[in-house]
Design brief:
The structure is a single chain. The chain is an alpha+beta fold. The chain is built from 16 helices and 16 strands. The chain has helices at 16-27, 86-95, 108-119, 121-127, 171-175, 186-195, 235-244, 251-269, 284-295, 316-326, 337-344, 347-351, 360-370, 383-386, 392-403, 408-419, and strands at residues 3-9, 37-43, 48-54, 68-69, 75-83, 130-138, 143-148, 157-161, 164-168, 208-210, 215-219, 230-231, 276-279, 302-308, 329-335, 376-378. A six-stranded antiparallel β-sheet has the order 2-3-1-9-8-10. It has a six-stranded antiparallel β-sheet with strand order 4-5-6-7-11-12, covered by helices on one side. Strand 2 and strand 3 (48-54) form a beta hairpin. Helix 3 crosses helix 4 (121-127) and helix 9 (284-295) packs parallel to helix 10. The chain is globular and about 70 Å long. The two termini are 38 Å apart.
Length: 422
């Protein structure tokens, strides 16, 4: 992952050195996200400053440095994420238009900027398959765009402070701005007590917002704190399109198509110029991801597991069995209670706001161990959400068998009664 931060200040007078000092201070709080390189770009006349911390994954040369200017010079970007279909987009760019695109390297960032030059930001977003959060300064329209991927895999926070808008990958970047006021939002605190996290678009600080997934926020001289992000994609519309064009094949054909989609999803995430591996717990999700990785790799995949001496919490034995079956190069780390307790003191600086999922402790320790061997790690997070949980498909079948004989009105009444229960 990389780290981005920046600001746009609509006040009349700016110093280039002053803006650069502020954005550098902000982005340097994110060195842990991007330890390989850092940079800043400033347009003092416009009051714009963009900062970047780089974790180099594609194109490790200086040609991949950010902030980066588009081939035609109109757009400047600071970007965190990966564009999985950048090679297909690059071929499409080469095949259309009367002027070829000149690339200095082979990063996905260059392709993203070339897309903006050719199609504009909104049309490009609809073509992009990836996980990303980015800020783009349009030098022609004098507009700053903050955009986030469809499901919000990459974070982006922003806040207005008078006529200044500041943004960053983490709250600590905003806290580094001299005009940031760290006032706790008590409504967000109440929401945390209810949900065990601070739900988007809120944050633990008053006035700070998380940019919602699948949205883009455009800021120019006419903007102010009341401006709202505009969605370019919604899950609701995607579900409606899927319902309108439902799959008509057999169960076997559905399995084959799912296998093809899953293989492709893993394959495009394995494109990297640095070593990569996988978190392996031995459960359904991570085991499937690892199996699909190993099936498409010419060498053993590096896999990593956290283990505990307490049998009720230990997944390492299952993970080792899966690793042996798949033939991966496996590493496990057994954690003592004292080591787990010691990790707790660093959690506030890692997550920046309250987050009460106990898995954050082993996840942090696993990531720290994995980083010693690889730069990129795939995981099974999100698998049960995408597939509707682990047991719902089983229970749905059972409920249908028990209720198919009931009249439709009775089934509706039963559904209403079930939904009324917490």
């Amino acid at each position: 992952m990389c780290g981005i931060a920046g600001l746009i200040d609509f006040r009349a007078c700016h110093s280039h050195d002053g803006l650069q000092e502020i954005v550098t201070r902000m982005v340097n709080t994110l060195i842990h996200r991007g330890p390989d390189d850092g940079g800043a770009w400033v347009d003092a006349a416009a009051g714009v400053a963009l900062g970047h911390r780089r974790l180099a994954i594609l194109d490790l040369s200086r040609a991949g440095r950010q902030p980066m200017v588009s081939p035609r010079g109109r757009y400047v970007i600071t970007y965190n994420g990966e564009l999985y279909n950048f090679q297909e987009l690059r071929r499409e760019l080469d095949q259309c238009g009367d002027q070829p695109v000149f690339y200095r390297g082979h990063s996905d960032t260059e392709v993203m900027l070339a897309c903006f030059d050719r199609w504009g930001i909104n049309a490009s977003l609809l073509r992009m398959n990836g996980m990303f959060a980015f800020a783009v300064w349009d030098r022609k329209e004098r507009t700053l765009y903050l955009c986030r991927d469809r499901l919000g895999e990459k974070p982006l926070y922003y806040r207005w402070a008078g006529s200044v808008l500041m943004f960053g990958s983490e709250l600590k970047a905003l806290r580094a701005h001299p005009e940031f006021q760290a006032e706790i939002d008590r409504d967000a605190l109440a929401a945390y007590m209810r949900h065990n996290c601070v739900p988007a678009p809120f944050s633990i600080y008053k006035g700070v917002r998380k940019l919602l997934p699948g949205t883009c926020l455009a800021i120019n001289g006419d903007s102010g704190p009341g401006i709202v992000p505009v969605p370019y994609w919604t899950l609701k519309e995607a579900a409606e399109r899927g319902t309108a064009d439902a799959f008509r094949g057999t169960e076997q054909e559905a399995l084959e198509q799912l296998d093809e989609l899953a293989r492709d999803a893993v394959k495009i995430r394995m494109l990297s110029d640095v070593p990569l591996g996988a978190f392996l717990s031995g459960g359904i999700d991570s085991s499937l991801i690892t199996a699909l990785m190993q099936a498409q790799s010419v060498r053993p995949v590096k896999t990593f597991t956290i283990g505990f001496r307490e049998p009720n919490y230990n997944e390492a034995r299952d993970a080792a069995l899966v690793a042996r079956h798949l033939g991966t190069e496996h590493t496990d780390l057994y954690v003592t209670p004292a080591e787990a307790m010691a990790a707790i003191t660093s959690l506030p600086s890692v997550y920046d706001e309250p987050f009460s999922d106990s898995s954050q402790i082993p996840t942090l320790l696993l990531a720290q161990m994995t980083r010693r061997f690889v730069t990129v790690g795939l995981s099974g997070d999100g698998g049960d959400e995408v597939f509707g949980g682990y047991l719902r498909h089983i229970w749905t079948d059972r409920i249908l068998k028990m209720t198919h004989w009931m009249p439709q009105g009775a089934r509706r009444s039963l559904a209403t009664a079930i939904q009324s229960v917490s």
